[in-house]
DNA sequence: CGTATTTGACCTGCGC
DNA sequence: GCGCAGGTCAAATACG
């Protein structure tokens, strides 16, 4: 039974072992053992490998994914720069109470920016949403929310949606989500209160991701000759290939069918979304970047 | 059929 | 007390 572990990380792993890093390496560099045409470990499915080796040379593929890698790395750098700027700024861009002006919120490339006053139970989160998404008044933050109201407010043409935490009936946390009046692509969410329960298991969150659901649908429909499992921590997604067709090259067939271009895009989008909203990941990321910056400052005395 | 969402009505706080 | 605006409730509706 061949398998490919998509993502694996833990709170204390350095950034280079984080799912996003692994994903980027696997998908873009060709360094990842799953997709590397030469360095692939035996028995591993080339997740992001060519769907038809005859149709496109490995060199072309490698060039293309490397280009994509550069773009994503640039986007990641922008996110990191935003976070560093935010951390260094004496005045938070989004803070408790009140909506943020578009000039104050997260800059290009998207991603949520979260700030909170240390002891406040009210915090505001700004995130970029797709303008085309009609149902974008909903920020994925790992919790389940039940909408209980909507109101058009005086100073904003976009309706404000009211949510309660639906994970635990007794959880007092509420959130309000409203598009920014100045920049409709920005969502401003205000959280009130603190959750009185554990954070929703990441595995639940991951398993709800459209990319994973797409995989599971394909599996159920029989078009996907492999099994999918998400471990309890939600940090490891395993695609297990059961050779259900004796005599056939099931592994190669799966490699060709599973990772369609649209699925790869959805998967990357989902994982980036997921990781952007994963506080542990952002914490690890920040620490790793800080350590890297320190390494690169020669003779710096602190 | 159970659950989630929508939406108009109602409640509450605040300024005048 | 009145009006306004924000917040919440709950019946109706949609959806899987």
Automatic annotation (TrEMBL):
State the UniProt keywords alphabetically. Answer: DNA-binding, Nucleus, Transcription, Transcription regulation
Q: Which domain of life is it from?
A: Eukaryota
The cellular location(s) given in this protein's UniProt record come to:
Nucleus
- Which PROSITE patterns does its entry note? WRKY
Q: Where is the WRKY domain?
A: 134-200
Membrane as UniProt keyword: no
Q: Where is the signal peptide?
A: none
Please give the InterPro entries that the UniProt record associates with this protein: WRKY_dom, WRKY_dom_sf, WRKY_plant
Q: What is its main location?
A: nucleus
The cross-references to Pfam families, in alphabetical order and at most eight, read: WRKY
Q: What is this protein called?
A: WRKY domain-containing protein
